[in-house]
Amino acid sequence: MRRSRARRLDGFAYLWVLLVVAFLGIGLTAAAEVYSTAVQRDKERELLGIGQQFRRAIGRYHETQLAGGRREYPAELDDLLRDKRSPGLRRYLRKVFVDPMTGRPEWGLMRVGGRIVGVYSLSQRQPIKQDHFDADDMAFRGKQKYSDWVFTYPADLLLRADGAAGAPADAASAAPAASAPFPGASAP
């Protein structure tokens, strides 16, 4: 009789161990998901910051007047690293940043008239952030992919391209289907 009772207790102990292992597995899975979400949110914040730096650099390049008061956008991202239009060394960016979503220094390029007016991530993942963007990034609301977050100068360029007043003469060609990744690629 003692033997059967001991066996029964061993069976209960085994069941308890299985339950504890199952709960640990569930807990670890939940913790991994929370961690993964936190990492993706950090990468989103980094993408927004880098995108703002690209937007400002493209804007400063564009606002630098050439002879006759003419302005132009950069032809390549390298033009933001060293402006070849002026005799001295003029930089708008220190480096071409790594896309935090893909981990590569490759960016999609939004072009108008062959010139870069914006950049975007090549990631096709769905963003966690869907609302509460800064004023310059309000066009990102509800976008389904990071590649839909296009950092243009000016920030409302794509809205202007849709027919709003004040659009640049060639802005109609600024549809999001523009362009190829950096480095060394050209627009289609």
Structure in words:
This protein starts with a helix and ends in a 27-residue tail after the last helix. Strands 1-2-3 form a three-stranded antiparallel sheet. The chain has a domain at 45-173. The protein is mainly alpha-helical and 188 residues long. The protein has helices at 2-63, 78-81, 157-161; strands at residues 108-112, 115-120, 150-152. The longest helix has 62 residues, at 2-63. The model is unreliable at 163-188 (pLDDT under 50). The protein is built from three helices and three strands, in the order H-H-E-E-E-H.
Strand share of the residues? 5-15%
Radius of gyration: 26 Å
Q: Looking at the chains present, what oligomeric state does this protein adopt?
A: single chain
Morphology call: rod-shaped
Report the sheet with the most strands, covering strand number, pairing sense and barrel closure.
3 strands, antiparallel
Helix proportion: 25-40%
User: Number of DSSP strands?
Assistant: 3
Strand arrangement in the largest pleated sheet: 1-2-3
Helix segment tally: 3
Give the N-terminus to C-terminus distance in angstroms.
84 Å
- Give unreliable regions as ranges: 163-188
- Spell out the helices and strands N to C: HHEEEH
Average pLDDT score: 83
Class by alpha and beta content: mainly alpha
